[in-house]
């Protein structure tokens, strides 16, 4: 389940699909660099959802091999656009209770503007390209599939 | 050698998430005419799998784990995955 | 030194000037909300600085009363622009060694775009308005004052 | 009552960071004509404090802990702070 992306971005940028809670501090530590003054982070969190019945959890699944390869392409493109940026990301799979983090993206760069932009880029790309799906589990136990482009339903 | 091997190719079709639930399995093998495109294969697939008519006409598709278009040409042994609307993040 | 901004943004958005290392996880915890699916974070870090001699530390000082009031205005304006956003921020004062965090801004909102935008807004505003100064301490012991608008010298 | 109290007001001028280092103290009391603006007070200040000529003509200034402009009017007892280029973050 863990993909050793770090081999391709030695010592710096790594990405993993994980089944356990995401350790943000560890991702931040991985991108830290004495020449980098700005670190931007995004965390997507499972939210209760105001729309209809309260959500107890989201069950995430992936087309794992392809997701690995898409994450890898996103990181390649990010480093092409922001050379020298350090990027770490993790997406959690399985059942994630409300309030816990499903995805974290951490980017450090010498100056802050690039960190914000690169972090946002990674998040937008992953939502559009990485084959991951979510099924909401409502408090009553009912389930429903949700897409990022369902009108008004994008959880983050 | 045998000309019949030129007339059809065999692809593996994978289903994920809601689509897997809909058709009741995670993959099938499908024979399609040699030179068929993703679009052709999807049309054939919708005719043969259970609830295939409830799959979209033009779903998001990956061939061999790369995003593909309706006019992407298929080759024997390809894996064509039908991807429900993405929901990562 | 600690300013109880939390009284004005009950239970959610707080800000402190601190003399100790910034506890990011605690700030993240403070903005977490079951209806908020996106959390954006910015951390400014003391960097060694490629320009001239390596920087061992930065000594931060502030016009503390005014800084308190400026932080407070920035948070008010942020909440006016992004109603319902939850914001936490801390700026550290005193001597901060290279690699440690000088400022952290954490924003959570229902959807991700607002979290990114509001976080960026807070960072840009604080750089422009809050009376805080830094003096670089070079490895040899020499010191020099640095401003955010010194050409090419903005550390983050 | 006494007309002389109308002709001058007393303000407290504070220095921070590099400016405090430059002038060698963190505040001085300055008498300025009643109705003087920040600009006037800064000009007077530059003439009386040590190394005052090395302070900028138009520094960033706060009056009573609020950002102020060169034409902001001063009142007796105001605190006028000279702020070196900001460096938070």
List the helices and strands and how they pair.
The complex is a heterotetramer, with 2 copies of chain A (156 residues) and 2 copies of chain B (89 residues).
Chain A lengths: L13 E5 L5 H8 L6 E8 L9 E8 L1 H18 L4 E7 L1 E4 L3 E9 L2 H18 L2 E7 L4 E4 L10
Parallel strand pairs in A: 1-4
Antiparallel strand pairs in A: 2-6, 3-5, 3-7, 4-6, 7-8
Chain B lengths: L3 H4 E8 L1 H7 L3 E7 L4 H11 L11 E4 L2 E3 L10 E5 L6
Parallel strand pairs in B: 1-5
Antiparallel strand pairs in B: 1-2, 3-4, 3-5
How would a crystallographer describe the biggest sheet of chain B? 5 strands, mixed
Distance between the termini of chain A: 24 Å
Largest interface (CB within 8 Å) is between: A-C, 36 and 35 residues
CATH superfamily of chain B: Beta-grasp domain
Q: Can you tell me the CATH topology of chain A?
A: Aldehyde Oxidoreductase, domain 3
CA(first)-CA(last) distance of chain B: 49 Å
Approximate helicity band of chain B: 10-25%
Radius of gyration of chain B: 13 Å
Number of strands of chain A: 8
Shape of chain A: elongated
Question: What is the number of domains of chain B?
Answer: 1
CATH H-level name of chain A... which superfamily? Molybdopterin biosynthesis MoaE subunit
Largest sheet of chain A: 4 strands, mixed
Question: What is the helix tally of chain B?
Answer: 3
**Beta-strand level of the residues of chain B, as a percent range?**
25-35%
């Amino acid at each position: 389940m863990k993909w050793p992306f770090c081999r391709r971005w030695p010592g710096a940028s790594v990405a993993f699909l994980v089944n356990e809670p995401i350790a943000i501090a560890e991702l931040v530590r991985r991108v830290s660099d004495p020449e980098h003054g700005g670190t931007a982070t995004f965390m997507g969190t499972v939210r209760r959802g105001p729309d209809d019945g309260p959500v107890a959890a989201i069950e995430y699944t992936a087309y794992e091999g392809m997701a690995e390869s898409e994450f890898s392409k996103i990181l390649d493109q990010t480093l092409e656009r922001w050379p020298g940026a350090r990027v770490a990301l993790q997406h959690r799979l399985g059942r994630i209770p409300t309030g816990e983090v499903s995805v974290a993206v951490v980017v450090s760069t010498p100056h802050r503007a690039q960190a914000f932009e690169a972090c946002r880029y990674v998040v937008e790309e992953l939502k559009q390209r990485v084959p991951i799906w979510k099924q909401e589990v409502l408090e009553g136990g009912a389930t429903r599939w949700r897409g990022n482009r369902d009108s008004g339903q994008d959880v983050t | 050698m045998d000309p019949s091997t030129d007339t059809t190719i065999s692809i593996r079709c994978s289903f994920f998430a809601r689509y897997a639930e809909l058709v009741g399995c995670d993959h099938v093998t499908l024979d399609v005419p040699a030179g068929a495109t993703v679009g052709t294969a999807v049309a054939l697939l919708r005719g043969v799998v259970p609830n295939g008519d409830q799959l979209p006409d033009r779903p998001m598709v990956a061939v061999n784990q790369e995003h593909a278009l309706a006019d992407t040409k298929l080759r024997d042994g390809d894996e064509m995955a039908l991807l429900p609307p993405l929901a990562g993040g």
